[in-house]
Amino acid sequence: MNEVRKLINITDLSTGEIDHLMDLADDIMADPTKYQDACAHKILATLFFEPSTRTRLSFTSAMMSLGGQVLGFADAKSSSATKGETVSDTVIMAGCYADIIAMRHPKEGAPIAAARKTTVPLINAGDGGHFHPTQTLTDLLTIHRKLGSFDNFTIGLCGDLMFGRTVHSLIEALLRYENVKFILISPPELRLPEYMKEKMNRSGAEWHEYTKLEDAIPELDVLYMTRVQKERFFNEEDYVRLKDSYILDREKLEDAKKNMIIMHPLPRVNEIAVEVDDDPRACYFYQAKCGRYVRMALILYFLGIN
Amino acid sequence: MNEVRKLINITDLSTGEIDHLMDLADDIMADPTKYQDACAHKILATLFFEPSTRTRLSFTSAMMSLGGQVLGFADAKSSSATKGETVSDTVIMAGCYADIIAMRHPKEGAPIAAARKTTVPLINAGDGGHFHPTQTLTDLLTIHRKLGSFDNFTIGLCGDLMFGRTVHSLIEALLRYENVKFILISPPELRLPEYMKEKMNRSGAEWHEYTKLEDAIPELDVLYMTRVQKERFFNEEDYVRLKDSYILDREKLEDAKKNMIIMHPLPRVNEIAVEVDDDPRACYFYQAKCGRYVRMALILYFLGIN
Amino acid sequence: MNEVRKLINITDLSTGEIDHLMDLADDIMADPTKYQDACAHKILATLFFEPSTRTRLSFTSAMMSLGGQVLGFADAKSSSATKGETVSDTVIMAGCYADIIAMRHPKEGAPIAAARKTTVPLINAGDGGHFHPTQTLTDLLTIHRKLGSFDNFTIGLCGDLMFGRTVHSLIEALLRYENVKFILISPPELRLPEYMKEKMNRSGAEWHEYTKLEDAIPELDVLYMTRVQKERFFNEEDYVRLKDSYILDREKLEDAKKNMIIMHPLPRVNEIAVEVDDDPRACYFYQAKCGRYVRMALILYFLGIN
């Protein structure tokens, strides 16, 4: 790895690299102690120009679990950005103090600009409504561990499919694999954008659209829930009529397969009832755990340690 | 320890456990190097939904002094709470990234709700005006180390005894021991609540109330100072008349025992004059130091390491 | 070192001590692994009552690169200062939880007040418009490594020389050495204060003033750029007329010596054009790197490890 590695979008990783990261994460989960000093004397900088506890903590936990250390900032107010510094300069500066960078920024494209001059590996930890590749890696690891492979399964994506970046990235990643069927469940206003549907068509993937979760749930192997924000609806009437359809509860689960897995990128507000937490199909907290291990794998890989 | 340990209120610890923590803290203070790697590869999450530098830093220092690492957030703004996540979900999430949690929350009862589903040990680091058990452990260690035991002494509690949670918890803890006499020194408006007095009565503890510190100080073995906030007084007149009585200075100390110890949970504003800092009886900074060691003991105990 | 060490102003260090720190930093840069565990089991507290990402991260990186750990706060809002605690009390408290303190405060003189009662070594990480000694050490290390010594060279200081604390400290430090010539380049409103000129005169140092960078650049061995804030100008007319003169670009560099070094304390806004970054004379990011190593040297020295 002579070139400095950057992960801006999940498409920056080849299928071979994703497979390598899955294998590495599996190996870490099987025996974390084997890796507990792998990043000793290495430093991760977490540059969060926008707060995101979950993502920041999972990166931090990942680096610490490798024996490394973590520095950074949790919001833009305590960054030099307030003094007019460019993101690019901040990233070069961080490269003087750390061996690898995870960066989150509210502005789409900021990580691309920042990555141009970085002297150390840089990971996009989310940029506005754009990319969030480590969430996708997290989702992939969860699916891979629960289903055993990425081929031949049906995934339901439920909620706001128009603006939900995690959904778009996950679809893009899964299109690389064989025979994944996509069930798109959303209010009419929040359907998956046309360009995403075209991508699926070009890949020859099968997909169907539903308005109600109830109608789609029986055929799913994976149900990926996301939030539907009230303000996304065009009118109050639609919202009142449809909102309950995007809340997963015990009743709706009755028609689901017994080994379906329920995922959610978290945080949830009310789109999954708390009663579902005790269902053996609930995987969203397991998914959070996967986020720690896949980030360990990514850090190792980008630092050229594995 | 098969069950996940939680410390919400000091009463969650048996007398035997408190004694064990005192002994363990003593042993750590005698030879900290013996414990400096005891928590290697362990992570503490400090979830502070409300800022509290002193408590957060003492937990952090405790974990680091055990060779462990620390992640978390210092105020709610950089937590997922702003996205509508429940405290319970945040705690489950933190349990995916850390081995033990210390949590502070402005809402009374929040840690109880949070603790219900935690998968890792959880320590309440203060919840509004309610409980703050590690402050009580800190106070207990200070008294134990300075007096040699918890039996047969007279403690004066001075200041706002109505709202001061540290005072209530300390009284509850000391009621378990033999022959502790309580001297309650406060403005009439800020006297200890009736239910606390009933608790003392039921335990058969001797207690007396004073309005002026000057009158009470000669008989004390321990003087525990707390802040009296101006806004707690019912009228300006009372405040002006009484406020100096709750400020400890060299003059008032003249009538005190030569080996009395002066405690304060800190931060102080003006309730102890700076001139008192050089008095050998001043123990409040020593108390801060004890806070680090007793938290080390608690972390070790809850992680099942000691 | 029986006395607790404090670094408030660069003048707190003897010339011998500065030379020692330069040598130590050189040695660290030559072989960082030799020092990677030197501060194992030691804790640095970073008390930042005012945000400053760059300085905080460089201290943090320095301590971590020595195998030590770091705790603290990044702005006053999450400190006990909001509860009315004095800076002196905060520093004593931090001394209960850490082995060494780096403190930044918006109020001039705050570190002096704080240092009076500290029980552990204390480093001023910047106090308002006053002192910032570790920036000066950073600047010195950069010059020393690039020029090979502190004697016999010409340094141009460009920008706001009236309020720029880094410039004043650097001049004071360089006056200790032989035959350093100072070229002062600033708008008339922002010239170096008289008392600084008197200091140079008393030291017998040669100095000249210029209004335009173009006129001064050919004779410089070092060009130290600082920001000129628009609001510092007395009138808009002057600002428009002069502002471009304080922006370094490729064109102005044409007349500069081939081995001149360009420095800047960072963050920059627009006073150095991005095109200059690729010029081999650009040293400002190297300077940021030096900041990490000289702070490593300082921490080691103050902890009595080297």
From TrEMBL, chains A, B, C:
Fetch the Pfam families from UniProt.
OTCace (PF00185), OTCace_N (PF02729)
SUPFAM superfamilies assigned: Aspartate/ornithine carbamoyltransferase
Q: What class of enzyme is it?
A: transferase
The catalysed reaction is:
carbamoyl phosphate + L-aspartate = N-carbamoyl-L-aspartate + phosphate + H(+)
**What pathway is it annotated to?**
Pyrimidine metabolism; UMP biosynthesis via de novo pathway; (S)-dihydroorotate from bicarbonate: step 2/3
Q: Where is the Aspartate/ornithine carbamoyltransferase carbamoyl-P binding domain?
A: 5-144
Aspartate/ornithine carbamoyltransferase Asp/Orn-binding domain ranges (all copies): 152-301
GO MF term set: amino acid binding; aspartate carbamoyltransferase activity
Q: Which UniProt keywords apply?
A: Pyrimidine biosynthesis, Transferase
Give a yes or no for keyword Transferase in this entry. Answer: yes
Q: GO biological process annotations for this chain's record?
A: 'de novo' pyrimidine nucleobase biosynthetic process; 'de novo' UMP biosynthetic process; amino acid metabolic process
Subunit structure and binding partners: Heterododecamer (2C3:3R2) of six catalytic PyrB chains organized as two trimers (C3), and six regulatory PyrI chains organized as three dimers (R2).
The family assignment reads: Belongs to the aspartate/ornithine carbamoyltransferase superfamily. ATCase family.
Q: What is this protein called?
A: Aspartate carbamoyltransferase
Q: Which organism is it from?
A: Eubacterium pyruvativorans
